[in-house]
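Dear colleague,

Thank you for sharing your sequence with our group. We've completed the structure prediction you requested, and as agreed, I am returning the results in plain text so they can be pasted directly into your records. Please verify that the sequence below matches your submission; if there's any discrepancy, let me know and we will rerun it promptly.
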Amino acid sequence: MAAHTWQKSSFSGDAANCIYLAGTPEGVVKIRESDDPDVVITTTPDRLRAFIGGIKAGEFDHLAR
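Please find the predicted structure tokens below.
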């Protein structure tokens, strides 16, 4: 796998509970968790934007309780 520049959210506190994102030259977005960094999800910017919009709208709040 090519090396990526991973970005951690400023909302992530300690290093044990973090989500990282990286953009690639191909225009896709990669997502991983700090506790299992070898598992990487690949998506498109449009799909990520839709997901973040759903989060902001509260569509997934019931999963975080």
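Summary note from our side: Residues 7-64 form one domain.

Kind regards,
the structure core
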